[in-house]
Amino acid sequence: AASRRVSRKSCLRASRLLPPPLNPSKARACPDKPLQHQPVAAFCFLVRQKPASLLVNPPSPPAVSSVIAPLSSLPDFDPRTVAVVGVDAHLPAVPLAAQTPDALRARFAQPPQWEPEVVLEKKFMNREPAHASVLLAIVLREQPMVLLTERTAHLSTHSGQVAFPGGRADPEDASPADTALREAQEEVGLDRAFVEVLGTLPTYVTGSSFIITPVVALVQPDCVLQPNPYEVADLFEVPLAFLLDPAHHRRHVFDRDGVHREWFSMPYEQGGKTHFIWGATAGMLRNFYRFMQA
User: Fold this and answer.
1) By CB distance 3.0 to 4.6 Å, which of 180, 188, 268, 278 could disulfide with 215?
2) 158-217: per-residue pLDDT in tens?
3) Within 13 Å of residue 26, how many CA atoms lie on the same side as its CB?
4) Nearest 10 degrees: CA dihedral of 169, 175, 176, 182?
């Protein structure tokens, strides 16, 4: 099965070296407590769209802007040092009662009328768009937790950043949800038998021309995770309540060489470490907040 998976993905990920075989001794059960975190940095950026241009489940990806230099190419750039221009503490948090498994199932069964807030990044890579999916996995612990990864530093796109499990769609995938489940199994060893898909959020277009469908799902806490060491440097979890409270949503503005950029960040501290969530991941989480609060 492993060899079939590698051969299927090799033509789609030509820029990657083939990953080394996984060591079964590294497989681990999801613990009763959240996984330990490691500090990370990311290099994606967002632009907020005008309300009139926002679409729920747009039929086609919005037009992207002219190609600009990625932030990762700027000397000594660190998103954590960019000034915070605002914190959305004035917005209400999603009530805890709305974050239970049954409440989440009901929300997706009868979704409200709403609009995503961030759907498009300024384009920094001149290549053909590619469809992808990520798994916004809510682990059903006593306090629901969101599973995130730190991507390894050598990957060709979004290296070293905080991300959801996920990746590029394969021709054999039946749906965006199928892509997210397959990628999560290949990337972190999450068996789809432990996953209950609730639904999807509107697509999000990255500066690297990925058209991403976020797939929201519930995950049983007794799952077994076996991260692929080629793609994943670390796994960690953040409380869902923390991410759905806009008092933790910070706004940044960065102007350089005539280019204006804006993005959200959601730094999470635990055990003396700061886990800097920003860029595309923070943008999709912000949209999830808007969906839950609508």
Assistant:
1) 180
2) 445 788 999 999 999 999 999 999 999 999 999 999 999 999 999 999 888 899 999 999
3) 13
4) -60
What are the start-end ranges of the H helices in 93-157? 101-109
What six digits make up the tokens of 211? Answer: 């058209």
H helix intervals, 21-141 = 101-109
The 10s digit of each residue's pLDDT in 7-36 is: 344 333 433 333 444 444 444 455 444 444
> What is the rounded CA–CA span in Å between residue 10 and residue 220?
31
| pLDDT score for 33 | 47
Work out the average pLDDT over 132-159: 82
Cα–Cα distance, 252 to 37 (Å, whole number): 24
Give the mean model confidence (pLDDT) for residues 36-60.
38
Say how far apart CA 96 and CA 128 lie, in whole Å: 41
Under 8 Å between Cβ of 27 and 228: no
- The b-or-e profile of 2-21 (16+ CB within 10 A means b, else e) is eeeeeeebeeebeeeeebee
Return the SS3 of 163: strand
Q: CA 38: distance to chain centroid?
A: 17
- Residue 222's closest CA among 145, 140, 164, 142? 140
| Cα Rg of the chain (Å, integer) | 18
